[in-house]
TrEMBL record:
Keywords: Membrane, Receptor, Signal, TonB box. The keyword Signal applies. Residues 118-227 form the TonB-dependent receptor plug domain. This is TonB-dependent receptor. It comes from Niabella pedocola. InterPro entries: Beta-barrel_TonB (IPR000531), CarboxyPept-like_regulatory (IPR008969), Plug_dom (IPR012910), Plug_dom_sf (IPR037066), TonB-dep_rcpt-like (IPR039426).
């Protein structure tokens, strides 16, 4: 009997323990507005480690070992935090949260690698949340960057937007870092961020943080112009199936635009599916596909002087490709006079000066394929090895066709880029390895390809037959002059005669020749890149917070390998791929003082690049003082640097007849181009010599082996939240650059040092070379922003910022392409009506006209002033967990451009259906 009683007691105790161990609290979380369920709410237990998130229907299940009663802690962005006491777990809970203003409560990580309120950040930082993106009138998050304080963008095409800060603005900025889920999002060979071509899909963005200005001390080389840190959504937190379908139309012509494309459809479809399998395992899958008729670049300005293609025989335009082939026809005129002395009265007056004639170019529309498409896919698995240790594996792949602007326009067709990551993460540490692998696909280089097409159809001059385009042009010119035509009309007649039978875009003959040329590698006489470069990166970080009582320390190390593999089409790697290693280590110390009103921090970083002998040590120091509750004054000093990118050091690309884009290493300049034997001259002075015939016009180009550039940047700022409804941020900065890397156009005459060779275009070679300017370049600027919560879900924002450059090196193209000021405004409401089902957002971006120079000598000129208005209105279908949005970007349809030689951008009018958007 005693045994039975003892067994019964043990069994009851086991049941009680089992019941306690398996205790599950269930519930649903709703908003006080219309009873709408709230997803991604953090649900945790006070004084316990257990926690979870509500799913896409606002429901949660929380298993705990803690005995009842217990207190649940609930929090979510946009809602007041709440505590709920649970005494009985048998009945599901229904918890209601009150909406709250998020103004001033934003949390950032990138400014100091630790979580802190944006208001207390030691440096200027801009932020976009998933809710900002969902409510924006813009079509994608990259375009949203245009409205942020201190940000410049260059839009090369629908699928390629380059972002930067502090004035240095160009397509493919190698001094701006873009980080996606901890991975550097740069192209391994070209070293510039890939924009939205690969990375997070529209539905998977949780948070974007943008640091203005120098950030090398935290994020390494090439962070001189800023860093953008993008974080994807955690599948444990954001669950379920989400769908975003956008259908629109663009290329709506107006009377003032010269858009050659008619009205065309715009499609964007995005899907995200995430599932928490259990408390340890979750996964997500993302896919986004965009297709549209791309914007077309139509800059017709004459690069070679005054006049247009009807008045200047030497006309060459940024977006008419092929006109870079230019020859002085005087030798052909002299030959004609020698054959027929009676032509002397017509020819002799012409021989009193040079007579340069450019071959006829092809306009971009019809020549480049403007069918833009982008496909991005992503998959991720997360597994908790222990309650505080998580293992993450992810893969991201992007492909498509977009257009990019540099020394010419590049149609990046069928490119492929993949990023693959394995990461282990604890609450104070992480170890992360990833690789980026690129395939340039069938990239078409617009300018050189057009030149080769012209030559393939009819050579400029064939010595064997003594015939060609230029001899035919010369005879056509003389025939027209003999017939009494004026000189301008005679040149037009000569071009028509020489162009007779010219291949026309779209015809089988033209497309076959274009395909043959663009499909033959540069190293074999064509224009095809064969870039298969790879990047491998491993990094680790540990937060020593709590282990050392008097200071908080974060330390980390990083190793990176660039495997440059272009088969001698982009780099001098004809024998084997070139490996470039980078090693770095960093430490950050921070401490709060004066009763935690003063926060001080210092960071130090050591970096070594195997292309350069000397390592670099950089630093950052900052102070943040709470002058009054919610009023903060910040000061920072940052020393940032940039090793020359692989392109700036090693590029060796033929970009036209006898024309190269070149890095600035002595390996190329002396070893390959023989500058030490055949000295280079500035291209400007070569052109002056051609016009004047005076050898004294030639000016030597002084060069040295390229070396790292650096900047010392100071910033003073003030941020305040007034009455919980007005958020103010004001700043001023000053930077001094040393060994600034820019570009110069030069020429030399391989095989001879006789200046006479510069008179014949075919006997000298042009180079666009990266080099260090000798002067110290200074930049400075200021900015201010105000955000006002007008209550009843109305929010107004305005920002103003300005950037300036001093001590410009006139021999460099330095890419400081920005107006003296920007103004951005936004007025929005996130919930109108009784059930707050209606919402809207309007934004205005204004920029005055400004001077813009494109690297590589492609173009320069004034970008006209622009005032762009975007707007959208939305309606929630609460029971269907869906929404409908109607809107437009640039709704006034006043075409504008963000840079010379880049496309003019018109309106896109669209309708969007969204399902289960958080």
């Amino acid at each position: 009997m005693r045994k039975i009683l003892l067994l019964s007691l043990v069994f009851q105790l086991w049941l009680a323990e089992a019941s306690r161990a398996q205790q599950t609290i269930k519930g649903v979380v709703k908003s006080t507005v219309a009873g709408e369920t709230v997803a991604a709410v953090s649900v945790s237990i006070r004084n316990a480690s257990e926690g979870t998130y509500t799913n896409e229907r606002g429901r949660f299940e929380l298993r705990t070992h803690k005995a009842l009663p217990l207190t649940l802690l609930l929090s979510s962005v946009g809602f007041e935090p709440r505590e709920v006491v649970v005494s009985d777990a048998r009945q599901p809970l229904e918890i209601v949260l009150n909406p709250a203003s998020v103004l001033g409560s934003e949390v950032v990580v990138s400014s100091s690698r630790t979580r802190q309120r944006k208001l207390t950040s030691p440096v200027t930082i801009e932020q976009l949340s998933s809710k900002d993106i969902a409510n924006s009138p813009q079509l994608n998050y990259m375009d949203m960057m245009q409205g942020l304080k201190g940000v410049d963008v260059t839009v090369s095409s629908l699928g390629f937007t380059s972002v930067t800060t502090r004035g240095f603005n160009t397509s493919g900025n190698t001094n701006f870092t873009q980080i996606v889920d901890g991975m550097d999002n740069q192209a391994p060979g070209l070293n510039f961020p890939l924009g939205s071509a690969i990375g997070l899909t529209q539905l998977d963005v949780d948070n974007i943080e943008l640091l203005s200005g120098a950030s090398s001390a935290l994020y390494g080389s090439r962070g001189l112009n800023g860093t953008m840190v993008m974080t994807g959504k955690d599948p444990f937190k954001y669950q379920g199936l989400s769908l975003l379908v956008t259908q629109g139309v663009n290329h709506i012509k107006n009377n003032k635009s010269n858009d050659p494309v008619g009205a065309a459809p715009y499609y964007d479809w995005t899907l995200r599916w995430a599932k928490k399998v259990n408390e340890k395992l979750a996964f997500k899958v993302n896919i986004q596909y965009t297709q549209a008729k791309d914007w077309v670049a139509t800059d017709t300005a004459n690069k070679n002087g005054p006049g247009n293609r009807f008045t200047d025989p030497n006309y060459n335009s940024p977006n008419f490709y092929g006109g870079a082939t230019s020859v002085d026809i005087n030798p052909f005129l002299e030959a004609a006079r020698g054959m027929d002395a009676s032509l002397a009265p017509l020819i002799d007056p012409l021989l009193q000066h040079s007579n340069y004639v450019a071959r006829t170019g092809y306009a971009e529309y019809g020549y480049l394929d403007n069918n833009a498409r982008l496909l991005k896919t992503n998959a991720e698995i997360r597994y908790f090895i222990t309650p505080k240790t998580q293992l993450i594996a992810s893969g991201t792949f992007g492909t498509g066709s977009v257009v990019y602007t540099n020394d010419t326009r590049y149609q990046i067709k069928d490119f492929k880029v993949g990023q693959y990551r394995l990461e282990a993460r604890g609450d104070k540490w992480f170890v992360r390895s990833y690789t980026t692998q690129e395939n340039s696909g069938k990239t078409l280089i617009a300018g050189p390809t057009a030149q080769y097409i012209n030559e393939g159809w009819k050579p400029s001059y064939d010595e064997a037959t003594q015939d060609g385009w230029y001899p035919q042009y010369t005879m056509g010119l003389l025939t027209a002059l003999a017939g009494g035509a004026a000189l301008t009309d005679a040149h037009l007649a000569a071009r028509a005669a020489a162009d007779q039978g010219r291949l026309v875009p779209g015809t089988p003959e033209f497309e076959a020749l274009k395909t043959s040329i663009s499909g033959t590698p540069i190293s074999e006489g064509g224009t095809l890149f064969l870039d298969r470069s790879k990047l491998y990166n491993t990094e680790a970080q540990y937060n020593f917070a709590g282990l050392i009582p008097f200071v908080n320390i974060i330390a980390g190390a990083n190793w990176r390998l660039y495997n440059l593999n272009s088969r001698n089409t982009l780099f001098p790697d004809d024998d084997k791929p070139i490996d470039v290693n980078e090693y770095s280590g960093y430490v950050q110390l921070s401490k709060k003082m004066l009763q935690e009103r003063l926060s001080a921090a210092a960071s130090f970083r050591y970096d070594k690049n195997t292309l350069f002998k000397e390592p670099r040590v950089t630093s950052r120091a900052s102070l943040v003082f709470e002058a009054a509750p919610e009023h903060y004054i910040r000061f920072s000093y940052q020393n940032a640097y940039s090793f020359p990118s692989n392109i700036q050091a090693l590029q060796n690309t033929l970009n036209g007849y006898n024309s190269y884009s070149s890095g600035g290493s002595s390996f190329l300049l002396n070893g390959k181009y023989k500058f030490d034997q055949y000295p280079p001259y500035t291209l400007e002075s070569v052109q002056a010599y051609q016009q004047s015939g005076d050898p004294s016009a030639l000016k030597r180009f002084v060069y040295n082996d390229i070396k790292p550039q650096s900047v010392d940047a100071f910033e003073l700022g003030y941020a305040a939240l007034i009455g919980k409804r007005v958020l103010i941020d004001v700043l001023g900065y000053y930077s001094q650059w040393k060994n600034f890397i820019g570009y110069a156009n030069v020429a030399n005459t391989p095989g001879t040092q006789n200046p006479e060779a510069f008179k014949d275009h075919s006997k000298y070679t042009q180079y666009n070379i990266a080099f260090n300017g000798g002067e110290r370049v200074n930049t400075y600027g200021y900015a201010a922003s105000v955000s006002v919560d007008l209550s009843h879900n109305f929010l107004a924002k305005v920002n103003y910022y300005s950037d300036y450059l001093k001590n410009r090196n006139n021999s460099q193209v330095n890419n400081f392409n920005t107006p003296h000021y920007h103004i951005n405004m936004e007025f929005a409401n996130s919930g109108l009506g009784k059930k707050q089902q209606w919402s809207f957002n309007t934004a205005l971006r204004y920029k005055p006209g400004y001077f813009y120079v494109v690297s590589g000598g492609l173009a320069q000129g004034t970008v006209p002033a622009s005032a762009v208005v975007d707007a959208q209105i939305s309606y929630k279908l609460i029971k269907a967990h869906s929404g409908i949005r109607i809107g437009g970007t640039n709704i006034t349809n006043r075409y504008y451009s963000t840079g010379i030689a880049n496309p003019a951008i018109g309106a896109v009018y669209y309708a969007t259906f969204a399902y289960n958007i958080f």
